[in-house]
Design goal:
4 copies of one chain form a homotetramer. Chain A is 36% helix and 23% strand. Chain A is an alpha/beta fold. Chain A has a 7-stranded mixed beta sheet, covered by helices on one side. The longest helix of chain A is centred in the middle third of the chain and has 20 residues, at 186-205.
Chain lengths: 355, 355, 355, 355
């Protein structure tokens, strides 16, 4: 069954004649960005409702979008017949309930990562969507792994898939943030930062992760007291490939994400600083500097655009064109093993149910 | 008078409630791209009509866009009260008439470069829009110099404007195409390729071009018989800055556009190949290769998106937020001097009217 | 005690008046290179004798160097009063005996790595030289870790030492060879290739290695039957820093050695392909390629020059100005743990004697 | 006649048995560097005499080299039968006399650029050496265009010669110095800085320069009062190729020399900053910086080594293996045209005698 066979879930949704009416649940930093993207840059959709426990923030965001209502109860927004699709950008603990409600109503949902907070509840979402798919042949859940839409990652995957570097064997990742907010713990670094590399590894290699090891090198003095930073995380895939991930969230420098895949017949790297190259006098002599993005919102701006546009396009056709619930579950299962590896200091096997 | 003071030219055009109804005149390669962009990626506008002398092509393009009509006569499309704004992507010889018609009707027009085919007719457009602006305070004409919307060029200009490399003194440009279609002449290379560097120089330096010299190095054997390729074009600005432009349209390689600005306190370069770096075995030994864009449509895809989105946004507010008629005129005046310099082999001063 | 205090071991060796008379033991690939370097590029020394079990090869090498004798017995060359210093480039199993003979005679020796084949015999050399140093205050043994003389590695170490990137925390190394000769085993990859990264880590971080883990990713189809290739080797230092080493000896591509140090206040990378950047049409589209060195002899040509020149200069002053016997011992101890880690599949602690 | 046919000018000069006894005339910055190189890094030669009008400097330099005499009269040094070869590093106005004396005596001479101060006297040197060559078949004069020995330039020339980028058409050069000493004039910039690019162009393209144009862009505020800086110099070759040279000697930044050759089938660039790449926090945000050489002595250290070593090797064989007198003459003729072009502001044809 292909996407075009899917039953028309959104009634009368002729492209160009009627826009997809989207409810955005949670309008913090990410949710507000999604509202602005849907309103200003994405074609074929409009933000019809927003919902947030912080009602003043919801009011403020809605005021920017003509025709957008504030719906205090997120589940009421999901149930609203004037709503065709949902973006879930609420705190992770609400994801399970909200996504399941969308599946119940049979409307498309784009859920920010993590799909849910635990592997078990993520699996429950997978099972619910599977039951829906068994009935209707359609898919409803997309998870917000936006790197898959980044042109560099897409190009890298295509290069691997085309055999351009032969069979991939080793992947090196670096994930560096200038700083993290107070309250971030070493465990949450695994769950919130390493999770992206987990999905990247699965996306690039097309395999599940079988085991995780976490090394804790000497920490930077810039790290918060309780934080082990940097970490070196090793992922072993079911096919025997190895991924090493340096995750370092208190560099004090720029946002930097780099991935190198080493294959049998070549290697390929993305995330090299690029764009404008500047040379000017600095303290301690002349340097030639390239500009680097300030953060993930700048680095992945195009990826977010493409993610939302493709999601809208697919939703209007009644299908999903991005990472699905299973990808969300797999990431949770690996991160759970990662946290265990972090705490026990040993290689930990990933436990995943059969799909 | 700022943009927000401008009178509401498009009646009842509340953002988000009614989309800008755009007519696209000419649906060849560029025009069809613009139609697809407006339909698929730009928010706040829809393609309401297309017009092309090749009616089957117009039919084909319109069929992709629900609600889009084919209007055989482009001037009828301009006159249609159901049209709020116009994109001119027809052959250059029709630009003057079509743009003047838009000014007459007082609706925004985005005109692909060149604004018109000669400096004199471009100046006529400038004068007509000036008269409109004197009456209404608004601007109507934007010229399709999309590089101004490219993030790298924008960043480079900002760097210069902020004093980051001091006073700019010399600019080096390289403009390389793998090949050009049959029929391209050395003069048309000046008019169609060098024109972009002319606008880039004006955009980056904020000055007019005062003189042009064209050198004809030995030509590549890949060039068509009548073509002098490459050329080395020297532009001198009114402020005494010098721009050298290598334009080489039969490289047989990739599309490559590179600009370096050398200033008193530093230098900056854009257009360095970037993104994915691949290393694999090639004939004659291993190479480390970066991927380069296949052509200007790939290289400047984001620039085209931004150009159209900003034009739509500004048009709905009744203003222009991009290169205007004067920029189109200035480019024509410089290219005219460039062709003269090409033919006479000497430094040629640019003749421009007062603004 | 500084170098200039050292007793004049080479009698009457006024720089410029009498050249250091060097015997080179073993004139295979590396030994013949050393002979050519001493003869053609190093000032202040001359090759007075060569020795090799393959006497025809010794004859051939000696014929290129006026005044150079062939001495069949390497220990006779060491004992020869007309010899002032020795380069040991013989197979590793002869190193212990030959280096100890030099220490016995009290003449400087530059020994190609490995110092000896086992940690225990390396320690014996350390102890013998220590006894000599206790008597005379001088040092005699230098080990051929030529990367320390590579300008990039030297610059990287200086950057770290100057605090330019803050406290180093993680080091990423890649060591890639196009191919290896038949007979190379996974163990010998650890002993012969990883050993360089071991010394680099010790050189850059100024710490000993405390533990080793070896992962065996899926092997390339280009690897010989018995070879696990690539390997991912993890080194943990006594100060809690972590070094990951990708060693991949059947890439089929170029020789590539890359090191990145991530510190508290910045990061620094060397080994980026450099020099000439070429863009030309290749199969499958245009690529922009930088040339990469063909092998370690090309990549480290300057390092070998500097290594020999500094050794000659120091030897004439009766001292050592490079990696010493302890460095050779430490590398052997780590490689022994590496081989154990490889075989047992677990993290293995390095056992080192007190210095 | 090949190099090996040349008559043995230096009697009994068996390589390895007797070193070439070199007199260095002029021991300012460059001359002292040459003395140190010959003494410390070049094999097969020794500095037997130095001569300098500043006798204390000569004494100081000679004191560093055992066996080196001070000879007050440079022509006496040339005439000395204990001298086998001469390095001329005296001020340019003495070059003609000293080089002619070497030709008279029939001994090899390495003359720092310029060969002489004017094209006419350079031609006189060419003619004198030609007469010598007609008698003996040997060559005596090498000019100090050390860039020809730089590995990158050598590699670039080889790439062109091998057809790797097809027929070369355009060359872009940038020559940037952080600052120049007081007293440097725009004319001396042409004679002392541009001269290197002139030789590079001739070396890479294998053609003479036919015409020169000099543009004076707006000057940097960092330039001395009388200095036009930067300049843009255009060289046209006899084969119709075009070379543009940005020469900018008050950048306040690093020493930077970059050359790009654009050919029919590809392009190639050298001089890209390389080596260590550092990322660290700077004022105004994070930058990723590569280190750049401090000056020409650092950038071209290896080139100087190779230049001297090859000159010594060739001199001992009685020949020349580097840029000859004609190359010195050609550079002078082009610079003379360059100064004329600078002063008259027009394209100026180069006048050269037949070889």
């Amino acid at each position: 069954m292909t996407a075009t066979d899917a039953p028309p879930l959104v009634p009368a949704a002729e492209p160009g004649t009627a826009d997809l009416r989207v409810a955005v649940l949670g309008v913090g930093l990410m949710g507000a960005d999604h509202v602005a993207r849907l309103h200003r840059r994405v074609s074929g959709a409009r933000v019809a409702a927003v919902s947030d426990a912080a009602t003043d923030r919801a009011d403020q965001v809605a005021a920017e979008v003509p025709g957008c209502r504030v719906v205090p109860d997120p589940l009421a927004a999901v149930a609203d017949p004037e709503i065709d699709a949902v973006v879930v950008a609420s705190p992770g603990r609400f994801h399970e309930e909200q996504v399941l409600a969308c599946i119940d109503r049979g409307i498309p949902v784009l859920c920010e990562k993590p799909l849910t907070l635990e592997a078990a509840s993520s699996l429950a979402v997978v099972r619910a969507e599977d039951a829906y798919a068994a009935r209707t042949g359609g898919r409803l859940v997309q998870v917000g792994f936006m790197r898959r839409f980044d042109p560099e990652y897409a190009q890298l995957r295509e290069l691997i898939a085309s055999g351009g570097i032969g069979e991939p064997l080793v992947v090196h990742c670096a994930h560096r943030n200038p700083a993290v907010p107070p309250g971030v713990t070493t465990e949450s670094v695994v769950n919130d930062s390493v999770v992206h590399e987990v999905d990247v590894a699965r996306f690039l290699l097309g395999e599940e992760i079988a085991a995780v090891t976490v090394l804790r090198p000497r920490s930077t003095r810039h790290a918060a007291e309780e934080l082990s930073d940097p970490l070196l995380v090793l992922l072993e895939t079911t096919g025997g490939r190895v991924v090493d991930v340096e995750v370092f969230v208190s560099t004090g420098l720029a946002y930097e994400v780099r991935t190198e895949v080493v294959g049998e017949d070549g290697s390929a790297m993305i995330g090299i600083p690029q764009g404008l190259v500047r040379q000017s006098a600095g303290p301690g002599g002349a340097v030639r500097g390239t500009t680097v993005p300030a953060g993930f919102r700048e680095r992945f701006a195009t990826a977010y655009d493409l993610e939302l546009q493709r999601w809208v396009d697919a939703a209007r056709r009644g299908t999903v064109d991005g990472p699905g619930a299973w990808d969300g579950y797999a990431a949770q299962a690996v991160c759970a093993a990662g946290v265990e590896a972090l705490l026990c200091g040993r290689r930990t096997e990933v436990r995943m149910e059969q799909r």
